[in-house]
Amino acid sequence: MTGTREGAGSISWSRRGLMARVLALTGLCAGQASAQDVPVLIEMRKFAFVPAEIAIRAGATVTFVNLDLVPHTASATNDSFDTGTLRRNERKAVSFPAPGAFSYVCRFHPHMTGVVRVT
Q1: CA quadruple 112, 93, 38, 50: dihedral, nearest 10
Q2: H/E segment holding residue 104
Q3: Most Cβ neighbours (<10 Å): which of 63, 106, 115, 118?
């Protein structure tokens, strides 16, 4: 089906062509997106990591964001990464280049725990 938009000149497009342009502009065309392109977010809220466990592919980056009023950290129990202290609305991106299971904890609130599983 072809549509026409009136106004400062006439533009015509097909639905399929329009969708392809939209996807191309957002970088999400089939075969172009990879695991590394998909944003992975772990929130610190209500004194918990949400989600507490995630699975990602090697090379992906996880962003930790603190939504609580108090400071938190995301610190690997094997010392492989540490976000440092994150205050409200601060964020820190952590890359996971190699496979493994990475347990982490908030140094201020040890009941806050999580695991990033990298394949």
Answers
A1: 10
A2: strand 100-105
A3: 106
